[in-house]
Amino acid sequence: MPGDYPDGGILSTSIAHRTLISLTFRCTFLALRGRGLPNTRKFTAESEKKLPSNSIKLIIEAVNLYMSSLTKENLIRNYKRELSVREYSDRTISAYSRMLSQYLDYALKTPDVPREDRIRDYLESFGNHEASRAMAFAALKFFYHDLMRMPLTVFSLRRRRNKRLPPVLSSREVMLLLAAVQNPRHRLMLSLLYGSGLRVGELVALNIGDIDLDSARVHVRQGKGGKDRYAVLPRSLIPELTAMLGDRPGSDPVFITRSNTRYRIRTVQAVFEKALRRTDIRKRASCHTLRYANLLSFLTFFRKMFLESKLV
User: Fold this and answer.
1) Are residues 192 and 218 in the same domain?
2) Which of 156, 189, 204 is the last residue in one of the domains?
Protein backbone atom coordinates (compact mmCIF):
# COMPACT_ATOMS: atom_id res chain seq x y z
CA MET A 1 0.00 0.00 0.00
CA PRO A 2 1.50 3.35 -1.02
CA GLY A 3 2.39 5.83 1.68
CA ASP A 4 1.08 9.33 2.12
CA TYR A 5 2.57 12.77 1.82
CA PRO A 6 2.97 14.60 5.11
CA ASP A 7 0.06 16.73 3.85
CA GLY A 8 -2.03 13.80 2.77
CA GLY A 9 -1.37 13.43 -0.98
CA ILE A 10 -1.14 9.76 -1.94
CA LEU A 11 2.20 8.95 -3.50
CA SER A 12 2.01 7.82 -7.09
CA THR A 13 4.58 5.33 -8.33
CA SER A 14 6.89 7.95 -9.82
CA ILE A 15 6.61 10.22 -6.78
CA ALA A 16 7.27 7.26 -4.52
CA HIS A 17 10.50 6.49 -6.38
CA ARG A 18 11.76 10.05 -6.10
CA THR A 19 10.75 10.25 -2.45
CA LEU A 20 12.45 6.97 -1.57
CA ILE A 21 15.67 8.19 -3.17
CA SER A 22 15.59 11.44 -1.18
CA LEU A 23 14.78 9.62 2.05
CA THR A 24 17.26 6.77 1.67
CA PHE A 25 20.24 8.58 3.14
CA ARG A 26 18.24 10.06 6.03
CA CYS A 27 16.56 6.77 6.90
CA THR A 28 19.87 4.91 6.59
CA PHE A 29 21.49 7.02 9.30
CA LEU A 30 18.38 6.71 11.47
CA ALA A 31 18.26 2.94 11.06
CA LEU A 32 21.98 2.30 11.39
CA ARG A 33 22.74 4.72 14.19
CA GLY A 34 24.68 2.87 16.84
CA ARG A 35 25.68 0.13 14.39
CA GLY A 36 29.16 1.33 13.56
CA LEU A 37 28.26 4.00 11.00
CA PRO A 38 30.35 7.16 11.36
CA ASN A 39 28.50 10.31 12.47
CA THR A 40 28.66 12.13 9.16
CA ARG A 41 26.21 13.40 6.60
CA LYS A 42 28.17 12.05 3.61
CA PHE A 43 28.93 8.56 2.49
CA THR A 44 32.61 7.88 1.82
CA ALA A 45 34.30 4.78 0.52
CA GLU A 46 35.53 3.98 4.04
CA SER A 47 32.13 4.49 5.69
CA GLU A 48 30.47 2.39 3.00
CA LYS A 49 32.68 -0.57 3.96
CA LYS A 50 31.45 -0.29 7.55
CA LEU A 51 27.82 -0.76 6.57
CA PRO A 52 26.38 -4.05 7.85
CA SER A 53 25.59 -6.71 5.27
CA ASN A 54 21.85 -6.30 5.82
CA SER A 55 21.95 -2.54 5.28
CA ILE A 56 19.56 -2.64 2.31
CA LYS A 57 17.01 -4.53 4.38
CA LEU A 58 17.38 -2.00 7.20
CA ILE A 59 16.95 0.87 4.74
CA ILE A 60 13.74 -0.63 3.38
CA GLU A 61 12.43 -1.24 6.89
CA ALA A 62 13.24 2.32 7.91
CA VAL A 63 11.56 3.78 4.82
CA ASN A 64 8.47 1.60 5.33
CA LEU A 65 8.33 2.65 8.98
CA TYR A 66 8.60 6.32 8.01
CA MET A 67 5.93 5.99 5.33
CA SER A 68 3.52 4.08 7.57
CA SER A 69 3.75 6.87 10.15
CA LEU A 70 2.43 9.34 7.57
CA THR A 71 -0.98 7.76 7.05
CA LYS A 72 -3.97 9.98 7.64
CA GLU A 73 -4.99 8.14 10.81
CA ASN A 74 -1.51 8.41 12.35
CA LEU A 75 -1.17 12.05 11.39
CA ILE A 76 -4.47 12.97 13.05
CA ARG A 77 -3.65 10.84 16.10
CA ASN A 78 -0.28 12.56 16.55
CA TYR A 79 -1.91 15.92 15.83
CA LYS A 80 -4.49 15.43 18.60
CA ARG A 81 -1.80 14.26 21.00
CA GLU A 82 0.32 17.36 20.36
CA LEU A 83 -2.67 19.64 20.87
CA SER A 84 -3.56 17.81 24.07
CA VAL A 85 0.00 18.07 25.42
CA ARG A 86 -0.15 21.82 24.85
CA GLU A 87 -3.41 21.90 26.83
CA TYR A 88 -5.74 23.00 24.06
CA SER A 89 -9.41 22.63 24.97
CA ASP A 90 -11.38 19.58 23.85
CA ARG A 91 -13.53 21.71 21.56
CA THR A 92 -10.45 23.24 19.90
CA ILE A 93 -8.86 19.81 19.44
CA SER A 94 -12.06 18.50 17.88
CA ALA A 95 -12.46 21.52 15.56
CA TYR A 96 -8.80 21.58 14.49
CA SER A 97 -8.75 17.81 13.87
CA ARG A 98 -11.89 18.05 11.78
CA MET A 99 -10.33 20.80 9.67
CA LEU A 100 -7.12 18.80 9.23
CA SER A 101 -9.10 15.71 8.20
CA GLN A 102 -10.97 17.71 5.56
CA TYR A 103 -7.71 19.17 4.28
CA LEU A 104 -6.06 15.76 4.03
CA ASP A 105 -9.02 14.48 2.02
CA TYR A 106 -8.68 17.53 -0.22
CA ALA A 107 -4.95 16.90 -0.60
CA LEU A 108 -5.59 13.33 -1.69
CA LYS A 109 -7.47 14.67 -4.69
CA THR A 110 -4.68 17.11 -5.67
CA PRO A 111 -1.38 15.23 -5.21
CA ASP A 112 0.36 17.04 -8.09
CA VAL A 113 -0.40 20.57 -6.87
CA PRO A 114 2.51 22.24 -5.02
CA ARG A 115 1.99 22.32 -1.28
CA GLU A 116 1.82 26.12 -0.92
CA ASP A 117 -0.66 26.41 -3.79
CA ARG A 118 -2.73 23.56 -2.40
CA ILE A 119 -3.06 25.28 0.97
CA ARG A 120 -4.04 28.57 -0.66
CA ASP A 121 -6.61 26.82 -2.87
CA TYR A 122 -8.06 25.04 0.15
CA LEU A 123 -8.37 28.25 2.16
CA GLU A 124 -9.93 29.99 -0.84
CA SER A 125 -12.56 27.24 -1.09
CA PHE A 126 -14.27 28.57 2.05
CA GLY A 127 -15.54 31.59 0.14
CA ASN A 128 -17.31 34.07 2.41
CA HIS A 129 -17.18 31.78 5.45
CA GLU A 130 -14.50 33.80 7.21
CA ALA A 131 -14.77 32.06 10.58
CA SER A 132 -14.27 28.62 9.02
CA ARG A 133 -11.33 29.87 6.94
CA ALA A 134 -9.71 31.40 10.02
CA MET A 135 -10.07 28.12 11.90
CA ALA A 136 -8.63 26.15 8.97
CA PHE A 137 -5.73 28.58 8.75
CA ALA A 138 -4.92 28.13 12.44
CA ALA A 139 -5.33 24.34 12.28
CA LEU A 140 -3.03 23.94 9.27
CA LYS A 141 -0.48 26.37 10.68
CA PHE A 142 -0.22 24.27 13.82
CA PHE A 143 0.02 21.11 11.73
CA TYR A 144 2.87 22.32 9.51
CA HIS A 145 4.80 24.52 11.93
CA ASP A 146 4.42 22.65 15.21
CA LEU A 147 3.90 19.02 14.20
CA MET A 148 5.66 18.57 10.85
CA ARG A 149 8.28 21.32 11.42
CA MET A 150 7.71 22.72 7.94
CA PRO A 151 7.83 26.54 7.93
CA LEU A 152 5.75 27.71 4.96
CA THR A 153 5.44 31.25 3.63
CA VAL A 154 1.68 31.00 3.30
CA PHE A 155 1.37 31.10 7.10
CA SER A 156 3.57 34.19 7.42
CA LEU A 157 1.07 36.26 5.45
CA ARG A 158 -0.92 38.77 7.43
CA ARG A 159 -4.60 38.03 7.02
CA ARG A 160 -7.07 40.86 6.81
CA ARG A 161 -9.93 40.36 9.22
CA ASN A 162 -13.30 42.00 8.79
CA LYS A 163 -14.72 43.49 11.97
CA ARG A 164 -18.45 43.08 12.29
CA LEU A 165 -20.77 43.94 15.13
CA PRO A 166 -22.63 40.92 16.53
CA PRO A 167 -26.45 40.88 16.69
CA VAL A 168 -27.77 42.08 20.04
CA LEU A 169 -31.21 41.46 21.54
CA SER A 170 -33.01 44.21 23.39
CA SER A 171 -34.45 43.65 26.85
CA ARG A 172 -37.93 43.28 25.35
CA GLU A 173 -36.72 40.68 22.88
CA VAL A 174 -35.00 38.72 25.64
CA MET A 175 -38.22 38.68 27.64
CA LEU A 176 -40.15 37.49 24.57
CA LEU A 177 -37.61 34.74 24.02
CA LEU A 178 -37.73 33.51 27.62
CA ALA A 179 -41.53 33.60 27.61
CA ALA A 180 -41.52 31.31 24.55
CA VAL A 181 -39.73 28.54 26.49
CA GLN A 182 -42.31 26.18 27.98
CA ASN A 183 -40.02 23.91 30.02
CA PRO A 184 -39.18 25.66 33.35
CA ARG A 185 -35.73 24.09 33.52
CA HIS A 186 -34.92 25.17 29.98
CA ARG A 187 -36.17 28.67 30.75
CA LEU A 188 -33.90 28.79 33.80
CA MET A 189 -30.92 27.72 31.68
CA LEU A 190 -31.47 30.51 29.17
CA SER A 191 -32.12 32.97 31.97
CA LEU A 192 -28.79 32.07 33.54
CA LEU A 193 -27.05 32.50 30.20
CA TYR A 194 -28.47 35.99 29.99
CA GLY A 195 -28.32 37.04 33.63
CA SER A 196 -24.78 35.80 34.31
CA GLY A 197 -23.33 36.33 30.83
CA LEU A 198 -22.19 32.71 30.53
CA ARG A 199 -21.08 30.88 27.45
CA VAL A 200 -23.18 27.83 26.64
CA GLY A 201 -20.21 25.51 27.27
CA GLU A 202 -19.70 27.11 30.68
CA LEU A 203 -23.37 26.65 31.52
CA VAL A 204 -23.47 22.90 30.88
CA ALA A 205 -20.17 22.44 32.76
CA LEU A 206 -21.50 24.03 35.97
CA ASN A 207 -21.59 21.86 39.08
CA ILE A 208 -23.70 22.57 42.14
CA GLY A 209 -20.57 23.47 44.09
CA ASP A 210 -19.94 26.31 41.63
CA ILE A 211 -23.15 28.09 42.65
CA ASP A 212 -22.80 30.37 45.66
CA LEU A 213 -26.34 31.29 46.59
CA ASP A 214 -25.36 33.36 49.65
CA SER A 215 -22.95 35.59 47.70
CA ALA A 216 -25.07 35.47 44.52
CA ARG A 217 -22.21 34.51 42.26
CA VAL A 218 -21.18 31.72 39.91
CA HIS A 219 -17.71 30.23 39.82
CA VAL A 220 -16.84 29.55 36.17
CA ARG A 221 -14.05 26.98 35.98
CA GLN A 222 -11.81 26.51 32.97
CA GLY A 223 -13.66 28.97 30.77
CA LYS A 224 -12.38 30.25 27.47
CA GLY A 225 -8.60 30.10 27.42
CA GLY A 226 -8.63 27.80 30.46
CA LYS A 227 -9.32 30.74 32.80
CA ASP A 228 -11.46 30.76 35.94
CA ARG A 229 -13.68 33.72 36.83
CA TYR A 230 -16.67 34.74 38.90
CA ALA A 231 -19.94 35.80 37.32
CA VAL A 232 -22.90 37.59 38.89
CA LEU A 233 -25.87 35.41 39.81
CA PRO A 234 -29.14 37.36 39.46
CA ARG A 235 -31.00 37.20 42.77
CA SER A 236 -34.28 36.75 40.89
CA LEU A 237 -33.07 33.28 39.87
CA ILE A 238 -32.02 32.14 43.35
CA PRO A 239 -35.45 30.76 44.42
CA GLU A 240 -35.73 28.60 41.29
CA LEU A 241 -32.13 27.41 41.60
CA THR A 242 -32.59 26.58 45.28
CA ALA A 243 -35.66 24.45 44.54
CA MET A 244 -33.96 22.68 41.64
CA LEU A 245 -30.65 21.96 43.38
CA GLY A 246 -32.24 20.52 46.51
CA ASP A 247 -29.82 18.55 48.66
CA ARG A 248 -27.79 17.07 45.82
CA PRO A 249 -23.99 16.87 46.34
CA GLY A 250 -21.75 19.66 45.06
CA SER A 251 -20.12 17.42 42.45
CA ASP A 252 -23.41 16.92 40.59
CA PRO A 253 -24.18 18.97 37.47
CA VAL A 254 -26.46 21.92 38.02
CA PHE A 255 -28.62 21.00 35.03
CA ILE A 256 -29.37 17.34 34.36
CA THR A 257 -31.59 15.67 31.79
CA ARG A 258 -34.41 13.23 32.48
CA SER A 259 -31.87 10.41 32.27
CA ASN A 260 -29.75 12.10 34.99
CA THR A 261 -26.96 13.05 32.59
CA ARG A 262 -25.31 16.39 31.93
CA TYR A 263 -26.83 18.50 29.17
CA ARG A 264 -24.99 18.72 25.87
CA ILE A 265 -24.13 22.05 24.28
CA ARG A 266 -26.14 21.19 21.19
CA THR A 267 -29.24 20.47 23.31
CA VAL A 268 -29.15 23.95 24.86
CA GLN A 269 -28.65 25.48 21.43
CA ALA A 270 -31.66 23.56 20.13
CA VAL A 271 -33.77 24.88 23.03
CA PHE A 272 -32.76 28.45 22.13
CA GLU A 273 -33.45 27.96 18.42
CA LYS A 274 -36.88 26.46 19.10
CA ALA A 275 -37.81 29.37 21.35
CA LEU A 276 -36.53 31.88 18.80
CA ARG A 277 -38.79 30.41 16.10
CA ARG A 278 -41.80 30.92 18.35
CA THR A 279 -41.20 34.68 18.52
CA ASP A 280 -41.31 37.42 15.92
CA ILE A 281 -37.58 38.13 16.33
CA ARG A 282 -35.88 38.18 12.93
CA LYS A 283 -32.30 38.70 14.08
CA ARG A 284 -29.70 35.98 13.51
CA ALA A 285 -29.41 35.21 17.20
CA SER A 286 -27.78 32.34 19.07
CA CYS A 287 -27.08 31.36 22.67
CA HIS A 288 -24.04 33.61 22.59
CA THR A 289 -26.30 36.54 21.67
CA LEU A 290 -27.67 36.39 25.22
CA ARG A 291 -24.14 37.06 26.46
CA TYR A 292 -23.97 40.19 24.29
CA ALA A 293 -27.42 41.24 25.53
CA ASN A 294 -26.17 40.89 29.11
CA LEU A 295 -23.20 43.14 28.36
CA LEU A 296 -25.44 45.70 26.66
CA SER A 297 -27.79 45.79 29.65
CA PHE A 298 -24.86 46.45 31.99
CA LEU A 299 -23.51 49.19 29.74
CA THR A 300 -26.96 50.77 29.53
CA PHE A 301 -27.35 50.64 33.30
CA PHE A 302 -23.96 52.23 34.01
CA ARG A 303 -24.52 54.87 31.32
CA LYS A 304 -27.81 55.81 32.97
CA MET A 305 -26.12 55.97 36.38
CA PHE A 306 -23.38 58.18 34.95
CA LEU A 307 -25.82 60.57 33.30
CA GLU A 308 -27.90 60.84 36.47
CA SER A 309 -24.79 61.63 38.52
CA LYS A 310 -23.93 64.42 36.09
CA LEU A 311 -27.38 65.95 36.47
CA VAL A 312 -27.19 66.01 40.26
Assistant:
1) yes
2) 156
Tens-digit pLDDT profile for the chain (312 aa)?
334 444 544 333 334 444 444 445 455 544 444 444 444 444 444 554 555 555 556 665 655 555 555 678 888 888 999 999 998 888 899 999 999 999 998 988 888 888 889 999 999 998 888 889 999 999 999 998 888 888 888 888 776 666 777 788 888 898 999 999 999 999 999 999 998 889 999 999 999 999 999 999 999 998 887 789 999 899 999 999 999 988 899 899 999 998 889 999 999 999 999 999 999 888 888 898 888 887 777 666 556 665 666 655
* Residues composing the chain: 312
In angstroms and rounded to an integer, the radius of gyration of the C-alpha atoms of the chain is 28
Q: Which residues form the domain of 40?
A: 13-68
Do 220 and 143 belong together in one domain? no
Give the three-class secondary structure for 218: strand
Look at the chain and report how many structural domains it folds into. 3
List the one residue out of 233, 251, 200, 235 whose CA is nearest residue 91.
200
* 262-272: b (≥16 Cβ within 10 Å) or e: ebeeeebeebb
What letter does residue 146 receive in the DSSP assignment?
A: I
